[in-house]
Amino acid sequence: MVTEPRPLNVLWLQSAGCGGCTVALLGAESPGLATALEGAGIHLLWHPALSEAGGREVIALLEACLDGSIALDVLCLEGALLRGPNGSGRFHLLAGTGLPMTDWVGRLAGVARYTVAVGTCAAYGGVSAAGGNETDACGLQYDGDILGGLLGDGYRSGAELPVINIAGCPTHPGWVLETLLALKQDEFFAGDLDPLGRPRFYTEHLVHHGCPRNEYYEFKASAREPSQLGCLMENLGCLGTQALADCNLRLWHGEGSCLRGGFACINCTAPGFEEPGHTFTETPKVAGIPTGLPTDMPKAWFVALASLSKSATPNRVRRNAVADHTVVPPTQHRTRMK
Amino acid sequence: MSRLLVGPFNRAEGDLEVALEISGGAVREARVNAPLYRGFERILLGKSPHDALVIAPRICGICSVAQSTAAALALADCMGLEPTANGRRARNIVLASESLLDHLTHFYLFFMPDFARADYARQAWHAATATRFRAMTGSARDPFLAARAGFLHLLGLVAGKWPHTLAIQPGGTSATVTAAERLRLLGIVREFRQHLEGFLFGGAAAEFAALDGVAALDRWRAAAGAQGDVRRFLELAAALELERVGRSRLALFSYGAYPEDGGATFTRGVWRDGQAATLDVAAITEDVSHSWSGSGAPLAPAAGRTVPDADKPGAYSWCKAPRLAGQPAETGALARQVVSGHLLARDLVIREGSNVRSRVVGRLLEAAQLLLLIERWVGEIRPNEPFNRTGMLPEEGAGVGLVEAARGGLGHWLSVRKGRIAGYQIVAPTTWNFSPRDAAGVPGPLEQALVGTASTAAEPSVAIHHVVRSYDPCMVCTVH
Question: Which ipTM score applies to this complex?
Answer without folding.
Answer: 0.97
